Amino acid sequence: MRKDVLTKHEYYHVYNRGVEKRNVFLCDKDYLRFLESMKEFNSTKPVYSLYLHNELKRKGVLDVGRLRKLVEVICYCLNPNHFHLILKQVEENGISEFMKRLGGGYTKYFNHHYKRSGVLFQGKFKSVRIKTNSHLLYLSAYVNKNYFIHGYGDDFDWPYSSLLDYTGKRHGRICDTSVILNQFENKNEYREFIKENSLYMKEKKEDEKYLLE
Fold this sequence. Notes:
Layout: E1 11-17, H1 28-40, H2 50-58, E2 71-79, E3 82-89, H3 94-113, E4 126-130, H4 133-144, H5 146-149, H6 163-166, H7 178-181, H8 187-203
Antiparallel strand pairs: 1-3, 1-4, 2-3
Helix pairs in contact: 1-3, 4-8
């Protein structure tokens, strides 16, 4: 059981990394599998496997339009050895259930695919409650350009970040971008906000308490 109680309708910065700092995403297929899991596991209805879930959808047995979400995904970024998410808890224990499905399902896939066994992530996921709107905006920049802050790239086109949805280059089905973008005049204004803040974060990353060290 988690010691901290996650509250319904509140926002949280959620993150974890590979055990022993190992890479948990080794190829495009791995990233895409994790992202598919983020979309399909986000339901109050039990999801026993992605294969079965997709088969039920294909046959029309499962009406995905009527499913309730466990969480709202606001932002995400997947890096080779860790990930960051901003989640709003929609249902009671929604974040814990979502992360249990996500971590367990991906670990099962990864271990089967790479012929390994044992844990993949470093213990339970970490979470920090986002208490103010300014903190939410700041963290949206931190998460959306986390790959840049960690030195993995220097442009706006990392495909495994929600930033592409925020800049209008992609219209994905994972994130709800409205809570952030509705606070800016347009996407270009948010792009400038991201650019300025992520550069500052990269320069100060040694002292940034939200980094995974």
